[in-house]
Amino acid sequence: MIKRTVDFIVSLIAIIILMPLLVVVAIGVRLDSHGPILFVQRRIGVGDKEFLMYKFRTMKIGTPEVATDKLQDSQSYITKLGYYLRKYSIDELPQLFNVLLGHMSLVGPRPALYNQYDLRQMRIDVGIDKIRPGVTGWAQVNGRDEISLQKKVHFDLVYLQEQSFLLDLKILVMTVFSVYGGDGIKQKSSTQDMR
After folding, report:
1. Is residue 141 included in any domain, yes or no?
2. What is the pLDDT of residue 168?
3. 117 is in which domain, residue-wise?
4. Is the pTM above the cut of 0.90?
5. What total of structural domains would you count in the chain?
6. Per-residue b/e over 114-146, b at no fewer than 16 CB within 10 Å?
7. 193 lies in a domain?
8. Could you tell me if residue 132 is left (phi over 0), alpha (psi between -120 and 50 degrees) or otherwise beta?
9. Which of 17, 23, 120, 139 is most deeply packed, by most CB within 10 A?
10. Is 65 inside any structural domain?
């Protein structure tokens, strides 16, 4: 309950403070390419149940909805503005609304795609599905797109076993530095949002 309360308060304050940026980015996405401003995607939350996660759209309409490693030449699908939104994780900011609504936490395992059945099962097997997914997490600051699913599950399990306010704070600080440097993102093959 304490973590949920902190998530609610922090996400609400962040949305208010970042509203001018959110508006500017929304206009930019609209002007940059044809299609909706937000990309709404089926993700997996607590109890292995689906919810709709929000992102700024960074890819062109018509991009196949497949797993990250299945899309060939994904670079050609990313919009001009989308490249920078993804590089600095600005596309993730609408997830603050997911946190506000209780679908996600600020810190936790990144929510799996609905069709990542292998990742979902690995998480269920070790109990990771019992905690709310996060905007950022221990796996995110330890490799992000550059590590295997097995390694991600390992980091998620470490977080599950050692989660605390101080660990969450550490992850948030590490995320800021990671995002500032654009670390750990494979623009060439990342299709975590397909549109």
Report:
1. yes
2. 95
3. 2-181
4. no
5. 1
6. eebeebbebbeeeebbebbbbbbbbbbbbebbe
7. no
8. beta
9. 139
10. yes
Q: Are 60 and 79 in contact (CB under 8 A)?
A: yes
Structure tokens at 84: 């920078």
Residue 9, domain member (yes or no): yes
Cα 68 to Cα 86: distance, rounded to the nearest angstrom? 14
Check residue 147 and give its pLDDT. Answer: 80
Residues 6+ apart with CB under 8 A from 189: 68, 69, 71, 74, 145
β-strands 38-44, 50-56 pairing: antiparallel
- HEC sequence for 47-101: HHCEEEEEEECCECCCCCCCCHHHCCCHHHHECHHHHHHHHCCHHHCCHHHHHHH
Summarize the confidence of residues 73-79 as an average pLDDT. 76
